[in-house]
């Protein structure tokens, strides 16, 4: 299936995102805050939460997630993109990446079971 820019823009603006919120995305040598919206296996990012057209997308299908933790945040490398999740908010709230990791692990475990 093929998508063009218009298809993705329309999809990014549909209601009912799986997760939405501010994350920091590495741009060159520094991290910049972006508004992220996860819909299915597509992670959209915007300059502001009110923007209608995404700055970019990260397709999560086939990506592996590498995690790193520091005192104040968790960082994830997804398909060559580095994303930071602020830990000062609700520390007990699972991030979308933790949910994706859990699903990925469950899929691997279910595929390794013998019948």
UniProtKB/TrEMBL annotation:
Pfam families cross-referenced by the UniProt entry: PH
Name all PH domain ranges: 19-66
**GO BP:** endosome organization; receptor recycling; retrograde transport, endosome to Golgi
Against InterPro entries, the record matches this protein to: Boi1/Boi2-like, PH-like_dom_sf, PH_domain
For this record, the Gene Ontology CC terms, alphabetical, are:
cytosol; early endosome; recycling endosome; trans-Golgi network
UniProt protein name: PH domain-containing protein
Write down the species: Clastoptera arizonana (Arizona spittle bug)
């Amino acid at each position: 299936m093929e998508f063009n820019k218009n298809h993705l823009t329309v999809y990014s603006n549909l209601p009912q995102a799986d997760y939405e919120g501010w994350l920091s995305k590495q741009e060159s040598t520094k991290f910049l805050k972006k508004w992220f919206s996860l819909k299915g296996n597509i992670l959209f990012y915007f300059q502001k939460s009110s923007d209608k057209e995404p700055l970019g997308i990260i397709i999560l299908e086939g990506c592996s997630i590498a995690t790193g933790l520091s005192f104040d945040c968790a960082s994830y490398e997804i398909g060559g993109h580095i994303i930071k999740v602020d830990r000062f908010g609700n520390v007990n709230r699972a991030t979308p990446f933790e949910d994706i990791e859990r699903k990925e692990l469950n899929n691997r475990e279910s595929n390794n079971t013998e019948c």
